[in-house]
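Researcher: Let's do a round of design. I'm pasting the structure tokens now; please hold your answer until I've finished.
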């Protein structure tokens, strides 16, 4: 995920950044990570950082015997975001807010996190609820998933989140109706509370080609452009039928080239939740993808999803060099 093709700063002019040996973020996991970019605040307002970027550094109230890399308390993340990046938007993995996949949200923990967010002037923009894949849920499994999903919807306002992202890995034509039904039920529950339920462009099986009898791969592998187009078209159909939202993940579209990526962004733009995941790939240029998205009128967030400070810093610079619109 951290690999970038060619020169990072060849993708649009990079904004000036300060990267001393110890920046203001030296305490609590920011050591050596640098300082906020010297750009207008309106540009910084378009960037969000996923907690996933710092997964290996984080320790939690439930962490036992932390290793030598776990130097950053999860409650200190909001302040680090401001000190090191000047970023006021944070996107959580659900397992950075609860101890296990099936643990329901704890209101006391959420209130403590909200206090830390408010103190640092940071907004929680989304929680990625990886509590199971929805396409094939049925019977008791569906009921359990829905109960837990609704608990996340109920808890979201405590930390100020208006977006929850679910996992639709494995979506295909056969389970399309079931996936739509599950997604619509949770979205219908969330809508009166002002919460958007989205999914990112990953794990769809619309154009991957079917296995032959005996589990053999298809005789003729699908064209990668056609496969990607079929996948995001299928996802678009489910989103529209469920009255839900897209979270375009430019790293997981499966695009083999810039044009296919642009096609996916354009197709899913009308249902955007206002959040977009940014990863790197040798298949296309991040700066060009941002410029194209801006040209559509996008005024949402670009949420960085890479691994560690050096990779975050590079993608952060590219985004800041290419955003033009004001945050909605």
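Researcher: That's everything. Go ahead.
Model: Designed sequence:
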């Amino acid at each position: 995920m951290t690999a970038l093709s060619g020169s990072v700063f060849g993708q649009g002019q990079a904004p000036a950044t300060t990267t001393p040996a110890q920046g203001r973020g030296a305490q609590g996991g920011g050591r050596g990570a640098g300082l906020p970019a010297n750009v207008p605040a309106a540009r910084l307002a378009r960037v969000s950082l996923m907690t996933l970027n710092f997964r290996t550094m984080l320790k939690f109230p439930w962490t036992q015997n932390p290793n030598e890399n776990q130097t950053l308390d999860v409650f200190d993340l909001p302040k680090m975001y401001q000190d090191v990046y000047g970023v006021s938007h944070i996107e959580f993995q659900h397992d950075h807010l609860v101890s296990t996949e099936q643990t329901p949200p704890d209101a006391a923990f959420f209130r403590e996190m909200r206090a830390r967010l408010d103190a640092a002037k940071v907004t929680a923009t989304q929680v990625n609820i990886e509590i199971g894949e929805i396409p094939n849920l049925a019977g008791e499994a569906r009921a359990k998933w829905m109960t837990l999903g609704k608990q996340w919807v109920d808890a979201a306002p405590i930390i100020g989140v208006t977006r929850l992202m679910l996992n639709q890995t494995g979506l295909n034509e056969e389970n399309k109706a079931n996936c739509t039904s599950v997604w619509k039920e949770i979205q219908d529950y969330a809508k009166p509370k002002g919460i958007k339920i989205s999914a990112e462009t990953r794990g769809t099986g619309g154009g991957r080609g079917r296995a032959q009898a005996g589990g053999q791969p298809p005789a003729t592998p699908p064209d990668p452009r056609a496969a990607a187009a079929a996948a995001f078209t299928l996802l678009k159909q489910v989103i529209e039928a469920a009255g839900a939202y897209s979270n375009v993940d430019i790293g997981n579209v499966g695009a083999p080239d810039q044009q296919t990526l642009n096609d996916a962004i354009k197709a899913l733009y009308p249902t955007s939740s206002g959040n977009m995941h940014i990863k790197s790939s040798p298949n296309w240029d991040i700066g060009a993808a941002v410029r194209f998205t801006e040209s559509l009128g996008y005024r949402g967030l670009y949420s960085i999803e890479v691994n560690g400070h050096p990779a975050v810093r590079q993608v952060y610079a590219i985004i800041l060099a290419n955003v033009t619109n004001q945050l909605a």
